[in-house]
Amino acid sequence: MIKAIIFDCWSTLIKKDAPAPSSIPKKLNWEDDHEVEKKVGRILMLEPIKDLKTQVIQLLEELGIKYNEVLVADVMDILADKYVNYNKFYDGTLEVLSKLKQNYKLGLITNTTDIAFEPLRKKYKFDEIFDEIIASYEVGLIKPDPKIFELALEKLAVKPREALMVGDNPVDDLGGCMRVGIRGLMLDNKNKYPDYPIRISKITEILEWLKNNV
């Protein structure tokens, strides 16, 4: 029996209408490679950002990219919290979360930076919506590390079989959760994985999915 539903944030609940950390590889003319995203994550998402310019330079140096002040400024802009004004919930998300909260504990696990997530967290009052929020920079872990999912289970006080992970990334979200025995559901807002076996294309479909699959 499912007692808790854990959501990813970016591209699952929140529509990114502006650049975000995951777009940095494209900005740097790198292929949209998962390992490059992990390098971004390890430098920028495992602790609060204290000196953004220094950490951006560290990232560029680790990636072996020649940089100048313009490139550093561009990457800093991608991470700047001013983009919170462009990021918003997908249609119907708040209504669905409100209905789910009546019957399930709600969790949120996000690989993110504090400067991107904290303004959004305050703007949409995430702490009132979710029973537990696990942000990578607060716990020093990034998906798909099994420990971040185990931490979510501990905080929500549920067993793996009692939880459902909903996300848009087959590696970070769904691959990670299944490594600890949590069932995964692809929420494919961008229709990137039409052949994924356990999938919905928008959050408004989750209520019917739960009726038929739990």
Main β sheet profile: 6 strands, parallel
Helix content: 40-55%
The CATH architecture of the largest domain: 3-Layer(aba) Sandwich
> And the CATH topology of the largest domain?
Rossmann fold
Give the overall shape.
globular
Q: Could you give the count of β-strands?
A: 8
Strand order of the largest sheet: 5-4-1-6-7-8
Number of helices in the DSSP assignment: 11
Along the chain, the helix and strand elements come as EEHHHHEHEHHEHHEHEEH
Radius of gyration, in Å, reads 17 Å
Q: Which superfamily, in CATH terms, is the homologous superfamily of the largest domain?
A: HAD superfamily/HAD-like
Global structural class: alpha/beta
Give the distance, in angstroms, between the N- and C-terminal Cα atoms. 7 Å
CATH class of the largest domain: Alpha Beta
Low-pLDDT runs of 5+ residues are: none
Mean model confidence by pLDDT: 89
User: Which band does the percent of strand residues land in?
Assistant: 5-15%
Number of spatially distinct domains = 2
SSE blueprint:
Elements: E1 4-7, E2 14-16, H1 24-27, H2 34-44, H3 52-62, H4 69-79, E3 87-89, H5 93-101, E4 105-110, H6 114-123, H7 126-129, E5 132-135, H8 136-139, H9 146-156, E6 163-167, H10 170-178, E7 183-187, E8 199-200, H11 206-213
Parallel strand pairs: 1-4, 1-6, 4-5, 6-7, 7-8
Antiparallel strand pairs: 2-3
Helix pairs in contact: 2-3, 3-4
Provide a descriptive summary of the structure in words.
- The longest helix has 11 residues, at 34-44.
- This protein has 214 residues and is of the alpha/beta class.
- The protein is globular, with a radius of gyration of 17 Å.
- The mean pLDDT is 89.
- Strands 5-4-1-6-7-8 form a six-stranded parallel β-sheet, sandwiched between helices. It has a two-stranded antiparallel ribbon with strand order 2-3.
- The chain has eleven helices and eight strands.
- 43% of the residues lie in helices and 15% in strands.
- It has two domains: 4-16 and 86-213, HAD superfamily/HAD-like (Rossmann fold, 3-Layer(aba) Sandwich); 21-80, no CATH class.
- The chain has helices at residues 24-27, 34-44, 52-62, 69-79, 93-101, 114-123, 126-129, 136-139, 146-156, 170-178, 206-213, and strands spanning 4-7, 14-16, 87-89, 105-110, 132-135, 163-167, 183-187, 199-200.
